[in-house]
Design brief:
seven-stranded parallel sheet; 528 residues; alpha+beta; elongated; single chain; five-stranded antiparallel sheet
C-alpha cells in the first residue's frame, strides 16, 4: 500500500512505501491504544465487546479486563498508573498497578458527564479530556438519557478535584481526540461532526484561550473515516484519523500527507522500544507501521523503571552528588538527563560552515559521533531523558547580536540557518521517539531555552553533558548548570572542538571545577 505524499516534508516522517502490518484481528471495534514503556506491551479496548486486551510480540493477545465498562481512550500518568475513559460509567478513572481504582471525574456541576472519550496528561500532572456523548449510544456505550446539554473539554487539576470546563459549552458538537504540542503551549481538539481540528493556547494555569480552527474539511464521500484519535509527533506535526487512514498536518496547518490503512482507523499511538512504531486501532484489527519520527514526549515515557516512592520524592534531604568511589561511579537513571548539543553538520562535518576551524578532524579523532550514539542508546534503554540542543537561526540571522567574534563568524558564514543542510543533526544522531529537542541562539544550552523547564518537569538533576564545542558550548553549559545546582557529568570522549589543545584546556582545567569528567564507558557502567 502506497501512502500519499502531498508535501516533501511528509517523507521525512514516514517512508511512503512503509508496509502496514496487521498485528491482530477479529475484534468488533478497537480503540484506545497505549504503549507501556517499561513492560513493552500495547493495551487497547474493544468497546462493543466490552473487553480490554494487551498485545506484545512474545505473548501475543491477552485479555486484561471483562467487562471493561466499554472503555475508550487510555493513557498513563508519570507513575505508570492507567488513566481510562469509561463510556458505561461516564467516568474518568485512574487504575493503579495494585488494582486500586480511583474516580478522577464523573460529574460537572452535579450532573453526570456524557462519556469521557479521549485523554492526555500534562507534565504538571493535569489531565485533559473530551466528553462527547458517544458512550450513551447503543453499541459503543450504554443507551441512557443525557444530563448535560452540551459536549465539553475539561481539565482535572494536578492535585485532583472537580473537572474544570475549558471551552464554550456550545463550541463543539462532538469533541473527540485531543493532544498537546511538544512544548505543551498548545492543545489540539478535534470535532468528529464538524470534521475539523481546533487549537488553543495553554496558559500557565492550564486554562485554554484563543481557540481557532487549525484544520477543516476532514471528510470524504469516497472512503470511510472521520476525525477521532489524534497525536502530536516530536516535531509538532499533528496525526489525526481521517478518511482512508491517518492525515498528517504540519504545525502551520498544511496537510503534508496521508497514511493509508486497510480499515477505518479510530485511534493511534506510538510504541515499541524506541517509540518509532505507530500502532493503529482500526475497526476489526490492530495495525503497526514504522515511522521516522516519534511522539511528543509525554510524562509516562520516561517511566522505564518503578517511580521513586512518594516519601523519597518529598524528603527535604538534598540529593547526594554522583560519587567516584574506587573509580566506580554510580548514577541513578531516574535522575539523569543526557544533553546532545550542537552536533550539527555546520559544526563538525566536512563541508560545513566551520570546517576550516579543524572541527571535523577533531570530531573524527574523538570518535564523538560514535561515542555519543553508543551512550545515548544505553541511556534511553535505562530511562535517561535525552535532550537535543540545536543552534538554529532564521535566514538573515535576525536577533543574533554581533557582540562577540563567535556570533560575527556565525553570521558571516551564514551558518546554522533553519531548513539548511548545515543546521541538521549529523547522520546517526537524529532524535528518536520520546526525545526532547530545544533550540538556542547562544553558546549555553540554558540561555533563552526551555531546558530547565524540561528538567524540572521530568525530575532530573544529574546532567550528562555531551556535544560540541568542548571549550564553548559544553563548558558554558556545565558552568551554568553547576551554578543552578545541577550535578554535571562530562564524558570527555563524547565532546569535541577545533583541536586537541582547546579540548584539553577545557577538560583539564575549567570543567574539572564544575563537573565530574569521565568517559562514555564509565557512564555506561555507572547507569547499571
Amino acid at each position: 500500500m502506497t501512502h500519499v505524499t502531498l508535501r516533501p516534508e511528509f517523507e521525512s516522517l514516514i517512508d511512503p512505501y512503509a508496509p502496514v502490518a496487521q498485528v491482530a484481528t477479529g475484534f468488533d471495534f478497537t480503540e484506545g491504544p497505549i504503549w507501556h514503556p517499561a513492560e513493552q506491551f500495547l493495551l487497547f479496548s474493544d468497546m462493543p465487546a466490552d473487553v480490554r486486551r494487551r498485545w506484545d510480540a512474545k505473548r501475543g493477545l491477552v485479555e486484561m479486563r471483562r467487562p471493561s465498562n466499554k472503555c475508550n481512550g487510555m493513557t498513563y500518568d508519570a507513575e505508570l498508573n492507567l488513566i481510562v475513559c469509561e463510556h458505561a460509567t461516564s467516568s474518568l478513572v485512574r487504575e493503579r498497578p495494585d488494582g486500586r481504582r480511583e474516580i478522577l471525574a464523573s460529574h460537572f456541576q452535579n450532573q453526570e458527564l456524557n462519556s469521557p472519550n479521549d485523554v492526555c496528561v500534562h507534565s504538571s500532572g493535569a489531565i485533559y479530556f473530551s466528553d462527547p456523548w458517544y458512550g450513551r449510544m447503543p453499541v459503543f456505550g450504554v443507551e441512557r438519557p443525557r444530563q448535560l446539554g452540551f459536549q465539553g473539554v475539561y481539565r482535572v487539576p494536578p492535585g485532583g478535584g472537580a473537572p474544570l470546563l475549558l471551552v464554550d459549552r456550545y463550541m463543539f458538537d462532538q469533541p473527540n481526540g485531543l493532544c498537546l504540542s511538544p512544548d505543551e503551549t498548545l492543545l489540539y481538539v478535534n470535532d468528529t461532526v464538524q470534521a475539523l481540528i481546533r487549537v488553543f493556547d495553554v496558559g500557565s494555569d492550564g486554562s485554554l484561550s484563543n481557540g481557532r480552527v487549525f484544520a477543516s474539511g476532514i471528510r470524504s464521500e469516497l472512503e470511510p473515516g472521520v476525525p477521532d484519535g489524534m497525536k502530536c509527533d516530536q516535531r509538532g506535526n499533528v496525526w489525526v484519523t481521517a478518511p482512508g487512514g491517518v492525515w498528517v498536518y504540519a504545525p502551520t496547518g498544511e496537510l503534508l500527507g496521508k497514511v493509508r490503512v486497510p480499515e477505518l482507523v479510530a485511534n493511534l499511538a506510538w510504541g515499541g522500544a524506541d517509540f518509532r512504531t505507530l500502532y493503529l486501532t482500526a475497526t476489526h484489527s490492530v495495525y503497526a507501521i514504522a515511522t521516522k519520527v516519534g511522539p511528543r514526549h509525554e510524562p509516562y515515557m520516561s517511566a522505564r523503571r518503578a517511580a521513586v516512592p512518594t516519601s523519597a520524592a518529598s524528603s527535604s534531604t538534598p540529593p547526594a552528588a554522583p560519587q567516584l568511589a574506587s573509580g566506580d561511579m554510580q548514577l541513578d537513571p531516574r535522575r539523569c538527563a543526557m544533553i546532545i548539543q550542537d552536533l550539527q553538520n555546520d559544526v563538525i562535518m566536512d563541508g560545513g560552515a566551520f570546517a576550516d576551524s579543524g572541527a571535523p578532524g577533531h570530531a573524527k579523532q574523538q570518535r564523538v559521533v560514535d561515542n555519543v550514539r553508543r551512550l545515548a542508546e544505553v541511556a534511553r534503554a535505562r530511562g535517561v531523558v535525552i535532550i537535543f540542543v540545536w543552534f538554529v537561526v532564521e535566514p538573515g540571522a535576525p536577533g543574533v547580536t554581533l557582540n562577540a567574534p563567535l556570533f560575527e563568524g556565525l553570521v558571516d558564514s551564514r551558518a546554522m540557518v533553519r531548513g539548511s543542510w548545515g543546521v541538521a543533526p549529523v547522520a546517526g544522531l537524529e532524535p528518536r521517539g520520546g526525545d526532547f529537542v530545544i533550540e538556542k541562539m547562544r553558546m549555553s544550552a540554558w540561555e533563552g531555552t526551555k531546558l530547565e523547564t524540561i528538567l524540572k518537569a521530568t525530575g532530573r538533576d544529574v546532567i550528562i553533558n555531551t556535544g560540541a564545542w568542548t571549550n564553548m558550548s559544553v563548558e558554558h553549559t556545565a558552568r551554568t548548570g553547576a551554578d543552578k545546582g545541577y550535578f554535571m557529568v562530562v564524558p570527555e570522549d563524547c565532546c569535541s572542538t577545533m583541536n586537541a589543545d582547546w579540548h584539553n584546556a577545557a577538560i583539564n582545567f575549567a570543567l574539572q571545577n564544575v563537573s565530574v569528567v569521565t568517559n562514555a564507558d564509565a557512564v555506561i557502567k555507572a547507569l547499571g
